[in-house]
Amino acid sequence: MSSRTLRTLPLAAALALGAAACSSAYFPSGPKARNVMLEVWNLGTHNMKALYVTPDPSYADAKNLLDAPLAPQQTVVVPFFTGKYVTVVRERNNGQDLALTTQSGLMIYNNRCTLIAFNDSFQLQGDPDRGDDDGRAFDEPGDGDPGPGD
């Protein structure tokens, strides 16, 4: 080996060790995923026919969380687990259904968020990163509440 290679190896090893040591100290994991209640507000111009909360973008085998269609301007509160996707199905002007799914799982850690469903988009109101300090969140899955795998 050349003397240049010998000088580079300790530097590379030191950088790798430093990165491994610093990564957990400077980039701690986020808040613990938890069960919360999510308010969904229909601000579209048509009835919302179905609402699904799923662990991935597919909603094919999921249970509709609406007992009846949700009219424009109405809200519903549903159980939600941090990181899940939300899909709404609504009527369109031509009589066909339109399904909208969030682009990613929603990282919500409290009960103070409202997901607004417009005709062709979503908007999340509230501060999803703040922990819940009002005692309304339920941390343990059970009693029909969705857990991480539901």
Short descriptors:
150 residues; alpha+beta; Immunoglobulin-like; 2 domains; 4-stranded mixed β-sheet; 3-stranded antiparallel β-sheet; 16% helix
List the helices and strands and how they pair.
Elements: H1 3-26, E1 35-42, E2 48-54, E3 75-81, E4 85-91, E5 97-101, E6 114-117, E7 122-125
Parallel strand pairs: 1-6
Antiparallel strand pairs: 1-3, 2-4, 4-5, 6-7
Task: Give an overview in words.
It is built from one helix and seven strands; from the N terminus they run H-E-E-E-E-E-E-E. A hairpin with a 5-residue loop joins strand 4 and strand 5. About 15% of the residues are buried. With about 150 residues, it is α+β, with helices and mostly antiparallel strands. The longest helix is centred in the first third of the chain and has 24 residues. It has two domains: about 30 residues; about 90 residues, Immunoglobulin-like (Sandwich). Helix content is about 15%, strand content about 30%. It has a four-stranded mixed β-sheet, with no helix packed on it. Strands 2-4-5 form a three-stranded antiparallel β-sheet, with no helix packed on it. The chain is globular and about 45 Å long.
